[in-house]
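pinging the channel bc i need a second pair of eyes. not urgent but kinda urgent?? the chain im working w is below, pasted from the shared doc
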Amino acid sequence: MKFSWKNQTRPILALAPMAGYTDSAFRRLSKEIEPRQICFTEFTSTDGIVYKSKNTLSQLDFDEVERPIIMQIFGKRPANFTEAASRLEEMGADAIDINMGCPAKKVVSSDHGSALLKNPKLAAEIVEATVKGTSLPVSVKTRIGINQLDLPWFIQFCRDLESAGASLITIHGRTTKQAYTGLADWEPIYAVKNALTIPVIGNGDVRSAKDALSKLKNLDGIMVGRATMGNPWLMREIAAALYQDPKLEDTSYQAPQTFAQKLPTLLRHCELAVETKGEIRGMKEMRKHFVSALKGFTDARKYRSEVVQISTLAQAREILTQIAEIAE
């Protein structure tokens, strides 16, 4: 059955696209823990797709277990969005998402990501161009503004994206200027939902199931990002709270609390990283996940100095098992 945002279980629970984190290994791990979530790829350059960059295309590798898989792209040339969209459909994407929300200076200075908020006409043209290139649903992820919120302007911006063909909009409740500082403001997200007919998902500062429940309100779903770093079990906790399915006996699910309890999942993540990227690159990229998983434990700093030296799967098994025996 062809993917459609309208047909997804409500509320939608989505894993945010995070550069350097939500690769295929992490998405596969996340889906094994909580299969009801919807995964987005890391944001990928339309220019790189068009010019067939090997490194760019490798970011879009995925396993069937990750479906439905939403491939997120960024850029500023409408024609490249049309061609990239066609290629993503050929590669097996279930839907395409356009990044109009990344606040990174390098991205914004190139007029990509949230810089498109400065140019509503181009933003709408990009949505139209993407829709033109594919039969897949096309969505947008954006922020509430560049330097500050102008609610009437922002609502119109989102209406224009809907008119251009966007089938869903995800909104992070911060401006580009804020990046990830301060608190996310969800009130503009609720206002946009009231003004549109397409689904709207909220994003920003969802760190617990309680946060998800309290922030959902009139929205169609919740997207969770940075809080899953070192805690992929959070998505299971949130799903249990959102769906309350007694058949799954997880309505009060709690993530592992000790490092020993986390160990099997961390080692599974290592195996997936090695499988998808090879041992050298895979284990190097796992180091940041080890550091995230150690947060909150006594002597975490000492353990961090050990895990950032891990280079092989065998080392990971040995060192992480030793830490599990003593970490509190």
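so The two ends are 47 Å apart (CA to CA). and Residues 259-326 form a domain with the Non-ribosomal Peptide Synthetase Peptidyl Carrier Protein; Chain A fold (CATH 1.10.1200). — does that match what u expected or am i reading it wrong
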